[in-house]
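Sample 3 of the quickstart, ligand 1-deoxynojirimycin:
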Amino acid sequence: MTELVQQSTPAATGDATRWWRDAVIYQIYVRSFADGNGDGIGDLLGVRSRLEYLSGLGVDAIWLTPFYTSPMADFGYDVADYRNVDPIFGSLGDAAALVRDAHRHGLRVIVDVVPNHTSDRHAWFQAAVQAGPGAPERARYVFRPGRGEQGELPPNDWESVFGGPAWTRLPDGEWYLHLFAPEQPDLDWENPEVHAEFEDVLRFWLDLGVDGFRIDVAHGMVKAAGLPDVGHADQVRMLGTEVLPYFDQDGVHEIHRAWRRLLDSYPGERIAVAEAWAPTIDRLARYVRPDETHQAFNFHYLTANWDAASFRAVIEESLATAGLVGAPSTWVLSNHDVKRHVTRYGGGELGLRRARAAALLTLALPGSAYVYQGEELGLPEVLDLPEEFLRDPQRLRAPEDGRDGCRVPIPWAHAEPPFGFSPLGIAQSWLPMPASWGPLSVEAQLRDPASMLALYREALRLRRELPGLGDGALTWLDSPAGTLAFARDGGFTCTVNLGPEPAAMPVPGELLLASAEVTVQGGAVRLPADCAAWWRSA
Ligand code: NOJ
Ligand code: CA
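Result:
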């Protein structure tokens, strides 16, 4: 094989640990991970009881989705009290104990912060509603008079990401902005009170010991001056591809800079990861400049088509983006907002095969990787949830856009639902689990060396052991059409066949791990369709 291009994300110098540059971060959707108290809903106690599993899996950190006080209109992304735990999930004491125990297990803890909007039950919004038009309480949110003779039309043409207009009118005639559900009023970040409040919230959790924050809608807080019209409908289709007056405004970076200063004032490298959508590479790179967030999610990777050209393009683009500013790239295949990748990749045996290959590809790339709970079990999207259970507000946009199917609880053990998700004797989880999931349980897969879980555990073990994996450079190697091959420092090669036919190539070294059976004969290796393999090379 010949060397083609070297791509790297240069490690910034100075700090000795930089743990986040190649961390594998496991996303816990708290509601669906493990139920500690038997009400059928996942909680902090449940997470605590599974830390052994997570450290055994070999991840470096956990990211907990919002567990704060919330009426759950958007399952916790509508926060009513940023400094408390919703009783459904436990107490502040449980949160402190979880952070402490996670650290004892060698796991860092990242929590979500939701700064673009609060819940409509947040004390601030309640006060704003009470206070009436013109009151200072309203200046913490985006209240405006309507258009039309009687103010009966929304102030502008902005649409909610969840569908419908982004404005709701109060009985007193004023409208308030909500880029998401009406129960999620947008804060006005022009107001210094909002800045002060969030810095205080960050301190609260940093003092409690968390290692960082995942910033929800990190590109959303600042809106274009004068709130100008977009000019056309169907705006959700343009998310991340065009400039919108409510996303990716320059002013948002001042907030990230201020937060970075705050994070850096704490010992032990506390980090921020941005959920940011931006129209171009350079605009995305701005979020991960050295004085802003440490990482940004890489949604382009998540949306790549299953073919070698698409994956190579998105990998090159991602490394280039991060490289522009010296940040590590991140890699993510699934999360709580998208269809699980086993299903996206074709479902059934095909989807599983590809998901196995994708895991090895992802974990071999330079930078930091995110694992969404259940992907290590090969869970598919649940497509046939009974209608009465579906409550995701995004279904308003289009029923097929509902996100309930990727949020079904995790099967831990036993042959029947709820598969150890809740303590024994409890029958019903908040979303029902498919009766067929017994063989997918953690317990079943731990017994099976050919399972998806075994593959993840071994890949994560090797990732820790091999010096070339994680942060650093990647060198593309020549490989047949439909395949990818790249080398990492320290004698490591990854080969992936994304095509529908077996592919033959020269053996790159000693086989370390493969997602399916590969045959080595003479100097050649035959990679079956949808297969990745890791090699120790000379
Ligand atoms: C992104 C979160 O991941 C999603 O679940 C939520 O609905 C929106 N932000 C609004 O907070
Ligand atoms: Ca519970």
